[in-house]
Design a protein that fits this description.
The protein is about 20% helix and about 35% strand. It contains three helices and nine strands. A six-stranded mixed beta sheet has the order 4-3-2-5-6-7, sandwiched between helices. A three-stranded antiparallel beta sheet has the order 1-9-8. The N and C termini lie close together (about 10 Å). About 30% of the residues are buried. It binds inosinic acid and magnesium ion. The site of magnesium ion has 3 residues, from loops.
């Protein structure tokens, strides 16, 4: 339920995000110089990160999206990953960069990497805006990580809590009143 006692505290400001997204894009542009890349956004959390990132990349780029559900409506992971929307087109032989909002337990990413690897991309890399390595249950890591953050629940810049707060310009820590 929404209540008056939820608190938002800015963790990463809009300007810092913009600067870092640009840096990540420059790195990707260098790494794939002269080649074409295919970005796959994981809906819905990564949509804002992907939108900003793609416009800073100076390569021939195409995009596609997948949707998965790993969390329920709140903060707890269901532990199970379900594929809700698959890709529109084949990724065989492509330089694929999977774009995630946040790497947390790693369950979602390891599932997605398994599914995508089976489809024989030429290269498969991972870009994530945020990384919470202290929560890992599966050993996975991002190739391009925006910010490593402590074990806090964050919202904004695409990340949600029960579908709320995705539109915040900054990444904020959300604290809830005790139940
Ligand atoms: P993982 O499978 O535990 O790595 O979780 C990945 C997904 O959980 C992310 O793509 C987010 O949608 C969600 N998630 C994990 N941590 C947070 C958080 O701090 N805020 C909002 N969503 C989160
Ligand atoms: Mg989410």
């Amino acid at each position: 339920m929404s209540g008056g006692q939820e608190k938002l505290k800015i963790l990463i400001r809009r300007a810092a995000i913009q600067k870092r997204v640009h840096e990540v894009a420059v790195q990707i542009t260098k790494d794939f110089k002269g080649q074409r890349i295919h970005l796959i956004g994981v809906l819905k959390g990564a949509c804002i990160f992907l939108s900003d990132l793609v416009r800073e990349i100076s390569l021939e780029t195409s995009i596609d999206f997948m949707a998965v559900s790993s969390y329920g409506k709140g903060k707890q992971s269901s532990g199970q990953v379900r594929l809700l929307k698959d890709l529109d087109s084949s990724i065989q032989g492509l330089n694929v960069i999977l774009v995630e909002d946040i790497l947390d337990t790693g369950l979602t990413l390891s599932y997605l990497l398994r599914v995508l690897q089976q489809r024989k991309p030429k290269v498969l890399r991972v870009a994530a805006l945020l990384d919470k390595p202290s929560r890992r249950l599966k050993e996975v890591q991002g190739d391009y990580v925006g910010f490593t953050i402590p074990n806090e629940f964050v919202v904004g810049y695409g990340l949600d809590y029960g579908e709320r707060f995705r539109n915040l310009k900054d990444v904020c820590v959300l604290s809830l009143p005790p139940e």
